[in-house]
Specification:
The protein is α+β, with helices and mostly antiparallel strands and about 240 residues long. The protein is built from six helices and eight strands; from the N terminus they run ββαββββββααααα. The protein has two domains: about 130 residues, Roll (Archaeosine Trna-guanine Transglycosylase, Chain: A, domain 4); about 70 residues, Up-down Bundle (Methane Monooxygenase Hydroxylase, Chain G, domain 1), CATH 1.20.58. The strands form two sheets. It has a five-stranded mixed barrel with strand order 1-3-6-7-8.
């Protein structure tokens, strides 16, 4: 994989095209980053409605984490905010993803691929959409630089990252395609590892909120080194409820 910047995808929105409101998908322990790809398995009726509405419009949804970890952010979970209709609180920062592909299954599910576009601050929560899913006002301006991720120069101590990754994988009895890891460009590697490694919800949120990919790389290395020989984290399921 080359470190040269790829040609910009003509289907990606410009900053001016980012929506002022977003449907949100609260999911604990799942991380989407700008430039990353996230598979999702959608089957609950309200989230099927959300996806169909998004496909009819800007094709974007906001991935957020509930403030209280431990599952899907369905109504009535611990951490519900009485001032917000009893719905669980979500973290202030999320990431907007664009639906780039989907497949229907014979049992009524949608298999999606989301492409991370830009982080956003969660603003005012709006009334539930007709389909029953949550919507918020979205503020993208603090993260405008996320749209320049293709041209980003990352400060990465690659030797330390690889050593930490190897120790982490040994401690967790995990395996990977080391050739692909070694060939990955720095920014792509940091993004992919941050998304797929089995860190906890708090660590995932910290990686999301890192100032830029260089800061995220340092945080990623620290998490690898701290968790190398600790108890295994549970990997959240790619599904809705």
């Amino acid at each position: 994989m080359s470190d040269s910047a790829p040609v910009r995808n003509p289907f990606e929105p410009s900053f001016e095209q980012l929506p002022e409101t977003l449907p949100i998908f609260p999911l604990s322990g799942v991380l989407l980053l700008p430039g990353g790809k996230l598979p999702l398995n959608i089957f609950e009726p309200r989230y099927l409605s959300m996806i169909f509405d998004a496909l009819a419009g800007h094709r974007m949804i906001g991935m957020v984490q509930p403030v209280q970890p431990g599952g899907f952010a369905g109504d009535g979970l611990p951490g519900a905010d009485p001032s917000n209709g009893g719905r669980p609180q979500v973290h202030k920062v999320g990431c907007a993803g664009r639906i780039v592909s989907f497949n229907e299954t014979e049992d009524g599910r949608l298999l999606l691929a989301l492409s991370g576009v830009c982080r956003f601050d969660v603003g005012r929560e709006l009334e539930l959409a007709q389909g029953g899913y949550r919507r918020v006002s979205s503020l993208f301006s603090p993260y405008r630089a996320d749209l320049d991720h293709d041209d980003e120069i990352v400060e990465l101590d690659r030797d330390r990252l690889m050593a930490g990754l190897a120790a982490f994988f040994r401690g967790k009895n995990l395996s990977t395609d080391w050739d692909a890891v070694k060939q990955a460009a720095d920014a792509n590697l940091v993004t992919s590892l941050s998304m797929v490694l089995p860190f906890g919800p708090a660590e995932k949120q910290a990686l999301l909120e890192a100032a830029d990919t260089s800061a995220r790389a340092k945080l990623l290395i620290a998490f690898l080194e701290m968790n190398a020989f600790g108890p295994s984290s549970e990997t959240p399921p790619r599904r809705t409820n």
